[in-house]
Amino acid sequence: xxxxxxxxxxxxDWYNVFTTxxxxxxxxxxxxxxxxxAGLAYPLIYGIIYGGGVVEDTPxxxxxxxxxxxxxxxxxxxxxxAEIRAAYRCTGMEEAERLMQQxxxxxxxxxxxxxxxxxxxxxxxxxxxxxxxSSFLYYKNLLMAANRVMLDEMHDIQTxxxxxxGITGQTASRLVQAIPYDENIRYNPGFAYNVFFLPAALxxxxxxxxxxxxxxxxxxxxxxxxxxxxxxxxxxxxLTGRGAAYFLIYIGLGVYVSMLVPxxxxxxxxxxPGDILALLLLYIAACVAFSLTFSSLIRHRETVFVLFLxxxxxxxxxxxxxxxxxxxxxxxxxxxxIFPSTFAARGFINMNSAGCTLSxxxxxxxxxxxxxxxxxxxxxxxxxxxxxxxxxxxxxTGPLPPKD
Length: 404
Known about the structure:
mainly alpha; 4-stranded mixed beta sheet; 14 helices; ABC-type transporter activity; ABC-2_transporter_component
């Protein structure tokens, strides 16, 4: 067969696989819900939930069993912070817990009886805080306010102790704070939760919806003894044809998630559109290969919902949006390299929030390229294996009717 004829046949087979995969996707209502309803709605839901980004004057209940000058000074400073408001003074924890159950407060600050005595006797004084975890913003506010006041109190206590020892003025200040510093928080000075949470969640939506949609198709095919791979067509034709169908769908979803949603909710958009698009294309390619590889292991349609509950929070935190990668245990650092979302989220945050260019995110881009190559090879082997073990002969690339 001449090269021209082979090329024509290859192109015809590829187009047949491509169009049949699209028909398979659009004929499955469950996959359509995951791809389009979840892909379009989840970013909006996240943006609406965390749209404010910052909560101020969170009401808290104060339980002051110490009733001392030190505890009262601590409470005044807490009430003066922008994060929380001392809404109630309670006589005991029972009353404070009841207020929290009634949703009148979102946190409790507790001072034990020996708080003043511990400070005077140069022991460690303890202040306990309890937060309403119905929203992470309540926990953040309470913890940040308590930490700031605690650091300020420690500064005053140390200065007072040096003064008692006869050390005053600049000498005492240098001992308390040997290296003066100013707080300068770039990119998110207001500690808005949506600014550092949403970019990671948006990138994760692309990977998770694609993987779950493919897995549903794979599970359905195995349950009904149907095939998604044509035995008469090459693995390369099948792989590139199926992959192109998902790539085409997710180009539009990816632009919506990475450019339109941040604009809707006023997130920082400091990255250049061309750089973000380049990252997006590489990320989608890695996700397609990743999903083609691992979806071939799914044997039941319902498995997708179990994976959703287990994998989504894990993948989200492995992006490092809330905990630096340098603090990851070795196992979790290596485990995070399995998922394309790990590098895509970091690159997208660097671009959109910090204004980094492609050269500045070269590490993430290279990692995504390596993942795309490795998962493409593994997907090719999985495609060959699926083609060879297909239970029924067929004449097309799409699902066959159930076996009698």
